[in-house]
Amino acid sequence: MAVNLSTPVLIVDDYKTMIRIIRNLMKQLGFTDVDDAADGTEALGKMRQKSYGLIISDWNMEPMTGYELLKEVRTDEVLARTPFIMVTAESKTENVIAAKRAGVNNYIVKPFNAATLKSKIDSVFGE
Amino acid sequence: MAAPKHAAIRKAANNLRKKGDISLVDVLTLAEASIHSMKTFIDSLDSSIYKEFREIADYIQKTKQEIGHLQAHDLKSKHIPEAGHELSVVVTTTEEATTKIMECAEEILDADTSDVKAYKELVDGKVMEIFEACSFQDLTGQRISKVIETLEHIETRVGRFASAIGADDSKGPVSEKEAKRNKRKKDLILNGPALQGQGVSQDEIDALLNF
């Protein structure tokens, strides 16, 4: 399945700088419809108002973490199939395994580069 | 010196047992021997209690000195707030510098490339701004050094205090707030960034997930 660059993407991170970095990388990759949210709760609200084709989320946020967001998404009938990439500094094996069990589509450890982000997005969309 | 005293009491008691009628002199002799013996006992008791009280007083004095060396008020009112302020400035400074660098990069990416001379001028100017923004590293390095110094200051005093009073670490959180924070970290697997050499790499994650 080819990556549809007009797919709405939601970036979830509590650091504006990181949102800006990912936004710029997504722009360079050709994505045209990119929104952002500062934590899981805000992201969930946005996801219930607009249909996103990809979620790129940090793990460590308050009040709702990316891990909680992932679990919420996977148990919501409407949102359950939304591709979800975790982009995080959490790099313990237990985090990776927990994310996999919760249904993450891919996992990127910070700091990362554009090539890694591109390859993981391609992988999620089956390229 | 206890044995002769005991012998005197034993002798006086035996005399009393042997005699049919007991004189006042006999009783007084026994009483005198007993008092002598008890006086020595009470004297020795006073001396050991005094010694114990002296040791306790010395220990209290030493602990008070160690508490003074801890400089808890100084730590609370000066060192820790200053370290917190330094770290806040580091966060602000790095954020400002990163924003500046990103703005420059974004302007370069969005620039019109049709006029090569104007484009080169813009790129040269933005690259200089990026270099200038990178000067934050020197200042943040110095601020972080001050924070490390504060941590060492606290470590020395707390370590000295703990060993001086022979403190054992109690287990578990010291407040409800800390208990809640610890529970959240455990439940939501919030480990934070791993130190260099710890944690798993991107390749290891890919292998682990088989993506």
Task: Describe, in plain words, how this protein is organized in 3D.
The complex is a heterodimer of chains A (127) and B (211). Chain A has five helices and five strands; from the N terminus they run βαβαβαβαβα. In chain A, helix 2 (40-47) packs parallel to helix 3 (66-75). Chain A has helices spanning 16-29, 40-47, 66-75, 93-102, 114-124, and strands at residues 9-12, 34-37, 54-57, 84-88, 106-109. Chain A is globular, with a radius of gyration of 13 Å. A five-stranded parallel sheet of chain A has the order 2-1-3-4-5, sandwiched between helices. Chain A has a domain at 9-73 and 84-105: Rossmann fold, CATH 3.40.50. Chain B has two domains: 2-66; 71-168. By secondary structure, chain B is an all-alpha fold. The A-B interface holds A 16-17, 20-21, 24, 28, 59-60, 65, 67-68, 89-98, 100, 104, 106-110, 112, 116, 120, 123 and B 95, 98-99, 102, 105-106, 109, 188-194, 199-202, 205, 208-209, 211.
